[in-house]
């Protein structure tokens, strides 16, 4: 795992007060956006265990989520909308949608991942509600 950054890769001011507690298991993201940001941070740090644990079991891939041999450099995250999508459709308290653009480099070439991610909140063992990444679509 790479060195833990001082500022949070998701754009937060401080890793220890932003996504750090989620990745260490000390806290649980309270919103779909917080989970999405923590998952982006987990990708930047190569934390496949966190990504697997926060991916809904019904859609979680069987193969490893992080390829340790892939020379991938994450460059930044922009949350396009969480609120706008909520205003467009009626959500129950247990599902949400977050649109984001993540920028990265692979093999010296820059790329953009533009995704509208769906999240679901379920109460698991111990009675604690948790958000899970369900799936995503890729707008043109």
From TrEMBL:
<dbReference type="InterPro" id="IPR048469">
    <property type="entry name" value="YchJ-like_M"/>
</dbReference>
<dbReference type="Pfam" id="PF17775">
    <property type="entry name" value="YchJ_M-like"/>
</dbReference>
<feature type="domain" description="YchJ-like middle NTF2-like">
    <location>
        <begin position="31"/>
        <end position="136"/>
    </location>
</feature>
<comment type="similarity">
    <text>Belongs to the UPF0225 family.</text>
</comment>
<protein>
    <recommendedName>
        <fullName>UPF0225 protein LMJ30_05500</fullName>
    </recommendedName>
</protein>
<dbReference type="InterPro" id="IPR032710">
    <property type="entry name" value="NTF2-like_dom_sf"/>
</dbReference>
<dbReference type="InterPro" id="IPR023006">
    <property type="entry name" value="YchJ-like"/>
</dbReference>
